[in-house]
Amino acid sequence: MENKEKVRLQESKEGKNWKEWGPYLSERQWATVREDYTEHGNAWESVTHDHARSKAYRWGEDGIGGFCNSDQRICFAWAFWNGQDTILKERLFGLTSHEGNHGEDVKELYYYLDSTPTHSYMKMLYKYPQQEFPYSILVDENIKRKKSEREYEILDTGLFEKDEYFDIFMHYAKSDTDDFLFEVEAHNRGKKDAELVVLPTIWFRNTWSSGRDLVKPQVYQVDEHTLRIEHHLLGNFFLYFDDSVVEQVYCDNETNRKRLYNTNGTSLFPKDAINDYIVDGKAATNPEKKGTKASGVFKLKIAQGQPASVRIRLCREELLFPFEGFDSVMKARKSESDHFYSELQSLIPTDELRSIQRQAFAGMMWSKQFYYYNVRKWLEGDAGKHRPPQNRKNGRNSDWDHLFNYDVISMPDKWEYPWYAAWDLAFHCIPIARIDPEFAKQQLLLLLQERYLHPNGQIPAYEWNFTDVNPPVHAWAVLRVFKIDRKMNGGKGDYDFLIRAFHKLMLNFTWWVNRKDENGNNIFEGGFLGLDNIGVFDRNHKIVEDAHLEQADSTSWMAMFALNMLRISLDISMEHPLYQDMAIKFFEHFLYIGGAMNNVGDTNVNLWDDEDNFYYDVIHTPDQANRQMKVRSMVGLIPLYAVEILESQYYQALPEFRKRVDFLLKERPLLASLVARWEEEGKDHHRILSILRGFRLKKILQRMLDPEEFLSEFGIRALSKHHEKEPYQFEINNQLFEVAYLPGESDSSFFGGNSNWRGPIWFPVNYLLLESLLKFYRYYGEDFKIEYPTGSGAYKNILEITRDLCRRMMNIFLTDNKGNRPLYGKYKKLQKDPHFKDYILFYEYFNGDTGEGLGAAHQTGWTGLIAEMIYRYYAE
């Protein structure tokens, strides 16, 4: 049987744009930096959820189950009304950073259930209460709660206890590249008949108010079941409603200035007119049945325990019978999705594992979003419009005025983090490469383009502050995606991709060397490096004047970066031998960084503590130099990442590289002996480059694999449990700082308080640990054994340990012997209810003791790595 989705992927590669339309709408455009035009840069208060229904956005659009073309010019989404709410459910609700006791958080129940890479078939579930949605209760209760208390979730309100809700399944299928089928299947889970208004909505992103477009597109009614879309760039489309449609309503995607600012607006029928018509019965919509936003109105009365459906079709052709063959196309695309994933999952043994992995892939695909941010235009404002405050030109992102983002990008979470983050995206690309390597490669190259990469070589971090520094994992991701793609292509590697990425990564590497090695001693700083509150204090800012922090993690990341670049240059050298020069450059860089970490030469900085046998950050202050901050955290485990295996064929096939390496090792024997076992071939004649030789490797692993320290039933904790009984205290400048083990959510507002690196399990850093352990196994082989767990008296080789750690992390999502999934904690509804228990949320991080999911609930981004872990555990 032909794999139709693979055919579509190949056709996309050859120019047939199956991916032009997809789930590229945000789930929250309000309260983003892009939409913030306030004087003090308070993005969370600039455009609120209450404003969102009335304000036309400048930089993007949002909606529930959104679908649009690749630059969001024509947008489609679903809106609902239960007859009780005071507003339409047009977008997902959540708390701002100031309202939540642990920062921003979406307060809705929704799940991404399926998607092919070309979005030929997609499925999403939204759970909508039949009683009034508790907007104010969720805000008020969370504001009252302390940092030490749990968040107040929608399940805590009791709204779902009597099953008085709708399960709204949204199905999508592509009949062709510009022919789309949409269906809502709404199930009444309650014990009484219930009414639901469904509003499939089409609208245009407002590109005319800013002056970007001189022509305003239009949508208007053709007949009672059809509307016509006319766009000057995309052409004409028709939207067809099935026979159950009651009416069509129209307005404009224009700001209701009267409501928000008490001034006259540009439209008599602004953005919230449909809301006012449906909810309040006002004659607010355009009686002429035209505008830039329109909805079909479906009024469903659904019997208890029964479903009802709404069908929509969007296509270029004017059809006499638009729903002829609708069901067969929807069924065929669903079957093709099943076939695509069944081939990928052929070696995965259980339905449960296959379901978890498939939902993870679905989340990765649904988390694509069109992201638009022209920083220069954002700083200056639009011609003829209200100008941004003058202080913006010296404020946030003002030194990134070259940045022009106008692309579909993989988001960490389209509600909580509806903006790209550099190191998140690198991790996203690993599981994505397993199903769509072309998209993964495109994403990695995107952040290296001149429209993104700063002229000085820095990769932009995220919109809150592009200048923040994320760990340099981009080269690692490029290498991993290259290898995955090569293996899937029968050994044929995409060297064009690898070379293009390598050249730009050279600029980024140089930026790190020039900007983040202040003393030129190969010991690096970098700030918080994505690990938020892991430090004693905010590592982004100096704690006292003239203080200087030298970081074990930053230096280890750079050692890893150097090894990644070495490996890339060697891979390229096998096709283009001239790149051997670059391989030597990065080999030498690694030796110097590794030597500095081992206090070789005149660095006078000791990151390694001989008493604790662990790596720590070192702070220098005017009154005391070389003061170690002895927090046992992931910072001290990151040196494990700096490892690379070089197979014998590279050494033999590249004579120039071999000759110059031999010379370098002969000239610097002490340096070489501390960071490499070059002369000692390991398993299968491999050679190893690593910061950690045998003694230090064993000592770090001894701590990492100790249940009283880092080893949890669910992976490796970000902070040692040792600090639960013995918090680390650090006094400086008459200030006392303390770091204690917190397995769950943060108890402070450090970095917004919405994440915690002082004890929980985080997938990205755990995944890198697993990869590193596999490299050590490839060198040391089966005879190198370590006590596991520490103190147990049992010894295992590194492969056995790696597989067990992977199993522990998979167990977060799997049902235990009581039928419970650790990630759902105390919530019986999520654990036992047949309409909940098999739907998976991919949380941002997990409780270090219980495995309960915490933080952003839809961060299928880097937690989507579980899909790759399941694949490698069973299929490789």
Description:
- The chain has 876 residues and is of the alpha+beta class.
- The chain has 25 helices and 34 strands.
- The strands form eleven sheets. A nine-stranded antiparallel β-sheet has the order 6-7-8-9-17-13-12-11-15. Strands 1-2-3-10-16-14 form a six-stranded antiparallel β-sheet, covered by helices on one side.
- A hairpin with a 2-residue loop joins strand 8 (165-176) and strand 9 (179-188).
- Helix 12 (474-488) runs parallel beside helix 14 (552-573) and helix 15 (580-597) packs parallel to helix 17.
- The mean pLDDT is 94.
Mean pLDDT score = 94
* Helix/sheet category: alpha+beta
Describe the main β-sheet briefly.
9 strands, antiparallel
If helices are DSSP runs of H or I spanning 4 or more residues, what is the number of helices? 25
Helix content: 25-40%
Weakly predicted, low-confidence segments:
none
Shape: globular
Strand neighbour order, sheet with most strands: 6-7-8-9-17-13-12-11-15
Beta-strand content estimate: 15-25%
Q: Terminal Cα separation, in Å? A: 25 Å
Q: Count the beta strands.
A: 34
Q: What oligomeric assembly is this protein in?
A: single chain
Rg over CA atoms, rounded to whole Å, is 28 Å
